[in-house]
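Quick start: read one record
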Amino acid sequence: MSRHSEVPTTFWSDLNHASFEQGYLEAGSIRTRYLHSGERELPPLLLLHGTGGHAECYMRNLSSHGRYFDTWAIDFVGHGWSGKPDVDYEIDYYVEHVASVMDALGISKAHISGESLGGWVGARFALKYPERIMRLVLNTTGGATMNPSVMEKIKVLTRAAVNDPEWDTVRARLEWLMADPATVTDELVRCRREIYMQDGFKEALEHILVLQDPEIRLRNNLSDDEWSNILAETLVIWTSDDPTADDSVGRRIASLIPNAKYELMLNCGHWPQYEDPKVFNEIHLSFLRGCG
């Protein structure tokens, strides 16, 4: 039984009150898949997923956010159904992908909200392109830790799921993200399994996992001075059961960013936006709309 009052049913039940589309755009040279909700005249919002993930991690947030924002959840380069060039994906490569997505959409400035890898990219984007960011959300963000056991866990679970994409290996990768394994539905497993079974995904995975190499991770992590130089108004969200780092990491990041607010979500793991969408959506929308 889930610890949350609402167990996810299907992606479509999460979207039944939203105007919604899936599509592709050319972001520079990268064919990029997106999920979109909201009207183009609304303030733009980009939602950025984590390592090995895809836009569906925001399925439970698109409807509520599309009411107030021109909301785009993308598949990062190398991930989901987006293009997979034969290069290593370090953080600046993702940053340039996000900038190219914005250019393709005609967006000069946007709110950016990123989970895990997505937060790491969002933080670097805020440093490189401060004039292009409105508000920033760092949700169980990467970019601040160097934990060998966690890095090894990510490599082992992800390689197992991609190299042998059986039901149980893919489910194990997803359940590791959650405080409550019941949050992982068959539909979510099926979605990720199909992504992992794509031609070329095994090769792309090794380009994705370079950030779990200590030397490469070190040069991509943000220093204290860099966190302190993020000028955007920022919300740092952490959880009580995050498998990558405890909440002291989130508190420390929030203490370094000059204009940051911190929120702790209880009984959630690494995907609070999916595991407890009601609370996440309230916190997230309040911040992005400047209501709290």
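The first helix runs from residue 11 to 14.
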